[in-house]
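Bumping my old thread because nobody answered last time. Still need a sequence for this structure:
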């Protein structure tokens, strides 16, 4: 199966209660494609960077078998820059700055060799661009999209339009509330399903994730980590693990999607243990498998008669 990822590649400044990192590699497409590459290779990437994006990070993506044919490099431009600051509990963050830079004029062109991709992950970018990608594809089997409050507020109509072409929307709890205008997450998911995507995943940070699959509901725990260092990329690595596993297995049943949610949560748990992309640089399949199995151990119990 083939997987195409479109989204941002960034240089981030991140402040957490544990430290600050400046101009560290980030971006939705970066986290998604690296995470997915642990399940399926190659991963096809479409995005844009400026001349300041470190060459060694491009080499790292290539080492992970991420196909960069669709990556535009604007040598005279600067890479998208995001500065985020986390509160003490790491569950909420403020965006200090978003500098679009080369992203401001980004026109996603899908190379001919990528157009027949079956699994598509539209990372968090302007919904007008997400829609533009969709119209260049030949016959995608599954389209997943992520978004955030920046676009829910700033490009609301375009987002509603884009949602009609999406099979799975992945958002966090506050984004689900904002998009649906419903406080209750179950009601929010129903409202979003009526906007287009029949499958909605609502991430709740350290409290796990909810999978709404047509009329079914699966509640997934988060992995109980003792040390969380930097939550940046948790949502994107969740999406990457989720779609990477689905593309590898090519099975869109509810049972398999539940497993995909746990694989997504597994990869996200590795991501947040270190700064930036560092938690995802060198994972083994055994580590991923062991942690996946631990999810079951942490949440399974035997029913008894009462
Ligand atoms: P996550 O923590 O999974 O929500 O993703 C964090 C990544 O999203 C960071 O590495 C940022 O560079 C990227 N990001 C933040 N804001 C935007 C935006 N408005 N558009 C695209 N990517 C963004």
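Sorry it took so long. Here it is:
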């Amino acid at each position: 199966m083939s997987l195409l990822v479109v989204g941002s590649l960034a240089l981030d400044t991140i402040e957490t209660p544990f430290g600050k990192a400046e101009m560290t590699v980030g971006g939705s497409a970066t986290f998604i494609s690296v995470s997915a590459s642990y399940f399926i290779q190659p991963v096809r990437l479409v995005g844009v960077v400026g001349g300041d994006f470190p060459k060694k990070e491009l080499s790292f993506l290539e080492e992970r078998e991420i196909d960069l044919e669709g990556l535009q490099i604007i040598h005279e431009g600067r890479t998208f820059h995001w500065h985020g600051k986390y509160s003490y509990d790491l569950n909420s963050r403020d965006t200090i700055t978003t500098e679009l830079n080369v992203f401001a004029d980004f026109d996603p062109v899908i190379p001919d060799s990528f157009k027949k991709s079956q699994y598509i992950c539209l990372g968090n970018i302007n919904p007008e661009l997400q829609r533009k990608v969709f119209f260049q594809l030949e016959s995608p089997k599954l389209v997943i999209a992520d978004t955030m409050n920046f676009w829910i507020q700033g490009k609301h109509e375009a987002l509603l339009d884009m949602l009609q072409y999406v099979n799975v929307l992945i958002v966090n709890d506050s984004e689900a509330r904002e998009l649906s205008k419903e406080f209750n997450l179950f009601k929010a998911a129903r409202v979003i399903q009526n906007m287009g995507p029949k499958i909605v995943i609502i991430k709740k940070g350290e409290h796990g994730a909810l999978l709404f699959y047509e009329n079914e509901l699966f509640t997934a725990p988060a992995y109980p980590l003792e040390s969380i260092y930097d939550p940046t990329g948790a949502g994107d690595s969740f999406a990457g693990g989720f779609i990477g596993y689905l593309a590898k297995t090519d099975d869109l049943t509810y049972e398999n999607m539940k497993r995909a949610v746990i694989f997504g949560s597994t990869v996200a748990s590795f991501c947040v243990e270190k700064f930036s992309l560092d938690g995802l640089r060198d994972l083994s399949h055994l580590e991923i498998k062991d942690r996946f199995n631990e999810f079951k151990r942490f949440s399974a119990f035997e029913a008894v008669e009462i």
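DSSP finds ten helices and 13 strands in the chain. Let me know if any region looks off to you.
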